[in-house]
Amino acid sequence: MLCIIRHETDPYFNLAAEEYVLKNFARDSFMLWRNEPAIIVGKHQNTMAEINLDYVKENQIKVVRRLSGGGAVFHDLGNLNFTFIASDENHKLVDFRKFTLPILEVLQKMGIEAKFEGRNDLTIGGRKFSGNAEHVYKNRVLHHGTLLFSSQMTDLSNALNVDPEKFQDKAVKSVRSRVTNISEHLHEPLTVLEFRDKIMDHVRNNTPDAEMYSFSKQDIDAINQLREEKYLSWDWNFGYSPQYNFRKTLKTDGGKLEIVLKVTNGIIEDARFYGDYFNKLDPSDIEQALVGTAHHEAAVKEKLKVFDLSDYFLRISEDELLSTLF
Hints:
Layout: E1 2-5, H1 11-24, E2 29-33, E3 38-41, H2 47-50, H3 53-58, E4 62-65, E5 73-75, E6 79-87, H4 96-109, E7 114-117, E8 121-124, E9 127-137, E10 140-148, H5 153-159, E11 167-169, H6 192-205, E12 211-212, H7 217-231, H8 234-239, E13 244-252, E14 255-264, E15 267-275, H9 284-290, H10 297-304, H11 309-312, H12 318-324
Parallel strand pairs: 1-2, 1-12, 3-4
Antiparallel strand pairs: 2-6, 3-5, 6-10, 7-8, 8-9, 9-10, 11-13, 13-14, 14-15
Helix pairs in contact: 1-7
């Protein structure tokens, strides 16, 4: 087994690295890594429905879609991530308990009563500190999990705080759970990097063929290419989202404004404005212009540039109009 400690904290690189190792390495691998503040959404989720867009923009939190299913999670440098990538000719691949066992063993050695509970969670005293997900590619499985060690819980809560009435879709919704940091349960002080090293030592000592590995220049170049072409793209992170209906209402000095959108693969298929606002020109012009536009702020702003919005929505500013669209 190749054991890799990744020092990069760029979430786009780190998600690309997982896919690269899964699809290009023949040997089993184990990786430990951290991300700067980011929201990592599940493969089958509607990204816009999972995030607090205003908070994400204000705090420059990156949003990245991963290969595996499950719910959205918040990463910061107080969160340690682990990844197992393994082959199995018998295709007995999906085994959450098997891949989380080393984490439980480390914590139990430290005197922390951690347990596997539910479908894919690790808990301490009934409170979740780790969520896990898996993705199968041919005869290989990628299992990864979060380990909340000293994460900023306020950021975690705010970044994932969305209005459930804004979206109606068929995507998988994240399950909000009572969570805890591992650091709250330590008997002796420990940093997140010291905790990382304890896990790596445990895996190496209990895996007969384990050896440390560092990415080569060729590896890094290939990962960066995947990062640029896929994990940085709006198409993957937002456009991949399934069909959803978006509805939002705003009270303004010009009256109540409500927008309803039908979006498929990130592209607006239908747009309707409602409310008790006044207008000189018919907003159907704008509704028609939005059809075929990505449900992305830059793309929508570009479409709105050709309109004198004050003729369509009296006493409603461009910023207020935009705020109803996201």
